[in-house]
Amino acid sequence: MASEIKSLAFAAAILLAAAPAQAHDFWIEPSTFHPTPGAIVSVALRVGQDFIGERFYRYAKALIAGREPSDDVTRPSGLAYEIVPDDDPTSRFEPFRGHVLYEGKPLANALVVALLHGQPTVHIETHSDARGAIMLPLPCPGIWLIKSVHMVRASFFANEDWDSSWSSLTFEMPEPETKAKP
Q: Which one of 6-10, 55-59, 99-103 scores highest in mean pLDDT?
């Protein structure tokens, strides 16, 4: 039994070590630190700061380019926290415009970050306006990650203090169109 607990703790530690901390602590919280022989020990993976817990939810979308631009990508998909493009970003090279929605409503002042795959120095930030609108001047074609995090106090009866929602949208922006010479 002790070897099973050690194996479980080791596996959980590897999983946690693989995740970037980014100003948060990750810890394993077993149902007991002193199990009796043969007892089943459940573990919870926690994230937060100073042992103040946080429930986190991830809402991820990826846009796959089709033959023609799609208006479907401009409609909310019903996720609790989502970034919705105003136009299909897989169809042409232009600044990314969209809206940030939380529980289906525009979210003002949300920090939104754009990252270019394979280029860690390319980091573009903006905040949503009062209507939840955003504009990110993406400087080049490539695979982009647009992301945002929204935190609210957890309900009174929750085991954690905070609920954090993580929204992400990935897509590949095409090369700029070149005009044919007459």
A: 99-103
- Dihedral sign for Cα 70, 71, 75, 81, please: positive
| 147 contact partners, CB below 8 Å, separation of at least 6 | 83, 112, 113, 115, 166, 167, 168, 169
Beta carbons of 54 and 48 less than 8 angstroms apart: yes
Residue 23, number of CB atoms within 10 A of its CB: 6
34 pLDDT tier (thresholds 50, 70, 90): confident
Pairing of strands 133-136, 142-153: unpaired
The structural domains of the chain, ordered by start, are: 2-50 (no CATH), 56-173 (2.60.40)
What is the tens place of the pLDDT at every residue in 40-91? 877 776 666 565 667 888 888 998 887 788 889 999 999 999 999 999 999 9
At residue 16, the pLDDT reads 40
Tell which residue, 163, 137, 159, has the closest CA to residue 150: 163
3-state secondary structure (DSSP) of residue 97: strand
Sorted by sequence, the CB contacts under 8 Å of residue 83 that are 6+ apart come out as 61, 98, 99, 100, 101, 112, 134, 146, 147, 148, 167, 168, 169
Q: What is the DSSP letter of 10?
A: H
